[in-house]
Design brief:
By secondary structure, the protein is mostly helical. Among the domains are: 89 residues; 26 residues, no CATH class. The chain contains 3 helices and 2 strands. It has a two-stranded antiparallel sheet with strand order 1-2. A hairpin with a 6-residue loop joins strand 1 and strand 2. Helix 1 packs antiparallel against helix 3. The longest helix is centred in the N-terminal third of the chain and has 116 residues. The protein is rod-shaped, with a radius of gyration of 52 Å.
Length: 241
């Protein structure tokens, strides 16, 4: 074998070695490329899922923002309703107090007429009527009301109204205790006028049951509510022979 052949074989061996090394490096790079592509595709699919989840979170956020906005709107509306209701309640209570100031002297006047002209009991107060939402301390006693009520209870002429819308609009002052009644003509006209109004507007005479303390008819022998026998607070004394 000549030297030239040996050099040719040596170059071929060197070339094969280089080709082998570069082929190994190429295969390594190819595997790396495939792995990176596969990983990239996987990350791309994950990225799409992440973006979808982000969209859902944004939608949920906007829904919560809308709910919060609606809640704030409802709170503002409820505050407005509460304020209007408080103002309406104040107006109604003030109006009720004003009407009660007119009702109190008129009732005292009617009770006085019933007692002195017809011998009837007084009408029940507002808190004494069945089913009434009014309590005894609902309306505080005023100077005007207490004066009228005191006069109607039998304290003479002090604090009583001087004008009576009865017979002919004449002035009427209640007589002092144990004094003779008004003249017959005036009393007869006043009785006739008041009986007409009383029968048309006033409830029947009532009394309190001694057992259940409910208002019943004054002449009822038995309480229709508790079935207790009605007894008079002032029973008639037997006549002495």
């Amino acid at each position: 074998m000549t030297a030239e052949n040996e050099r040719e074989i040596y170059h071929k061996l060197e070339a094969m070695k280089e080709i082998r090394n570069k082929t190994i490096t190429l295969e390594r790079l190819k595997r790396s490329i495939l792995n990176e592509v596969r990983s990239g595709d996987q990350e791309g699919r994950c990225l799409a899922q992440y973006k979808r989840e982000m969209e859902l979170l944004q939608q949920e956020k906007m829904s919560h923002v809308e709910e919060l906005r609606q809640i704030h709107a409802d709170i503002n509306a409820m505050e407005t309703v509460i304020k209007q209701t408080e103002e309406s309640m104040g107006r109604k209570l003030t109006n009720a107090s004003r009407l009660h100031e007119d009702y109190r002297p008129l009732k005292a006047e009617v009770d006085m007429l019933r007692r002195q002209c017809l011998g009837l009991d007084r009408l029940p107060d507002l808190h004494e009527e069945e089913g009434s939402p009014i309590t005894p301390d609902r309306f505080p006693a005023s100077v005007r009301g207490s004066g009228v009520a005191g006069g109607a209870g039998g304290m003479g002429g002090a604090g009583l109204p001087t004008g009576v819308g009865g017979a002919g609009g004449a002035a009427f002052l209640p007589p002092a205790p144990r004094k003779p009644p008004p003249p017959p003509a005036f009393r007869s006209a006043l009785q006739q006028d008041f009986i007409t109004v009383s029968l048309r507007q006033q409830p029947p005479p009532m009394k309190s049951c001694l057992s259940c303390h409910q208002q019943i008819h004054r002449n009822a022998p038995i309480c229709p509510l508790c079935k207790a026998k009605s007894r008079s607070r002032n029973p008639k004394k037997p006549k002495k022979k």
